[in-house]
């Protein structure tokens, strides 16, 4: 009898979190990074806008999000209350790590935010324009060192695409990987490398202060308030966005998917979400449904091709 | 207005009762999570971030500052009393601190850590306030080759943490270096030694290794000694307060620790641990009581503790001046800034002086509160040692496990924790020091990455490593540290030899 009581008590304790939380959002990264911030901003807005009573955020860090993704697909199968944050970096990480679980194994809901890549040089650099930098790259690809985030990530892919578009062998690029755009920033400011590539937001304040020169951005059109040409204007057919998305668990019903999509759309269209985007400098890149699925498939194919040409994926 | 006026204004702003309360809550929480093995300040700040959405910017930043400083301090308490560091920056503290506690001098060890942290925090925060823009310019001189030289110097000096046998110390260090090779290689993105386990792709987590080696290993060792005499409790000998002699032996290490810790913390890829390694070896070389090192020398607690708090303040230099977070906690503080629409960077001091100065003022206040909170607690902490060992170590095991599960909810991570605990137990049984293995895991990957970055930038030209003056000086220091003792020994200089032999173990 005592055992039974204990067992019941234990079961009750286990059941409480499930009842209390409308949504559990998995951030497949350490606290502090972009995915974690996205998850915690969603938590805040979902609760404040009254879309969900209680939202929990759980960090499952590791290997470009593939650890969290694998755990999510396995543990939350059919759970309509679980969400996971992902992004463009995850597409590349799945490929480079040979991850058995990919974004096709979960239920993508929507693309939420995105940041364009910026190509910068130190203020003291002799390169004044993107054309100067490309000329140097063509002359000797190895002599142009690029600092950016982790190998195989968006920044690395951007450099690969730039080299390809310029007609330079992408396997010859000299990419120096740092653990993130921030650490790369120190290398660029310290004149340790030729150029730097990362999300525009990482460099913005340095560009404004004049310690770095912005050569180009990876947007399809000029970004409002940013004084730099696009890569396309510079004659390189590259257009790349580091987007972040939210996905639901695999094995949920169509009704459940529709309900989650409705909740997320309500959040993304709310004033609270727009305020957060503005204060964090993220642009709204809302895309859901069949359009998002198509975009995801296109990005995955393009990324695989680039990673193969850089030589990261065989 | 001069910087000084701004600081006074900031102090006045931060001294409001509500803000003082936030500072107190932050310091208290920070100390608590610092004490628990495995739960770091980063996680705490992340959990509290949503709570602070409702607060004004000043209030929440002040709370973060309190947590940050508190966490740095809290880790030393368990290091000293229980030989279980809560953070990687307090590993070195355990070497001498725990010896002191075992000799019944836990009180003075905790006191020198608290006061050293306070003094280091005070000086470093003032340096941050007045010199941040200049310091960051110097820190940027450090590129991959300079960092590599610094790592080499750290490798050479770290041998002073080896304990009684150089062979055993090196064995332990190389185990750590081997563990450091596991995971995705950062420069090429390829997996190494992961044997198909996705959990190993990100490498071995330093906290898991440290908590496993120290906390779990220690608990197993104590249990295995069948010395669980219920009555045997560490007696507190003498005063729990520092004697005049303790003060005399502590103040120089405090200052030296600050001088070493602050600049290394300010370097974008420095890290608090390196400062503690260098400080410990500096104290060991400069001490007048070399025989006490390894048996509870107060200098070995005072220096590294000052160094880790000074580097905590140093970390804020790149954060505030470049918007560059160099630790996980700083990254979350950055998120906190952004939540209020502030972008830390070169313009922050100019565009938002009030906020920056109230943050700096609140750091000073948090620092003062820490010492006020912790000095009276020393008596209580020391009593912790009188808890019967079975209960005490059961508690440690529980917190170690909870901490690991809390940061990374995976059964694989828990398995690793237990595995490392078992290795730690075996190493203790056979008198292998456990600190070098953790040191190897911290330094190895850093040194490797920086070396390869340097060579990649130079396109394979090794001479680049000695072409920069900073790197050349650091490498020369490292070479001297390695060669001089050997030469002296070969020349058979009587007294010098003995001193050096004692120095080297």
Automatic annotation (TrEMBL), chain A:
CDD domains: PBP2_Bug_TTT. Gene3D superfamilies: Bordetella uptake gene, domain 1, Periplasmic binding protein-like II. Residues 1-20 form the signal peptide. It comes from the Bacteria. Keywords: Signal. It holds the Pfam family TctC. Coiled coil: none annotated. InterPro entries: BUG, Bug_dom1. Transmembrane segments: none annotated. Belongs to the UPF0065 (bug) family. This is Putative tricarboxylic transport membrane protein.
TrEMBL record, chain B:
The keyword Zinc does not apply. The keyword Cell division does not apply. The chain crosses the membrane at residues 20-49, 61-82, 109-135, 147-163, 169-187, 316-335, 355-379, 391-410, 422-443, 464-488. Coiled coil: none annotated. It comes from Paracoccus chinensis. This is Putative tricarboxylic transport membrane protein. Signal peptide: none annotated. Residues 20-438 form the DUF112 domain. InterPro entries: DUF112_TM (IPR002823). Keywords: Membrane, Transmembrane, Transmembrane helix.
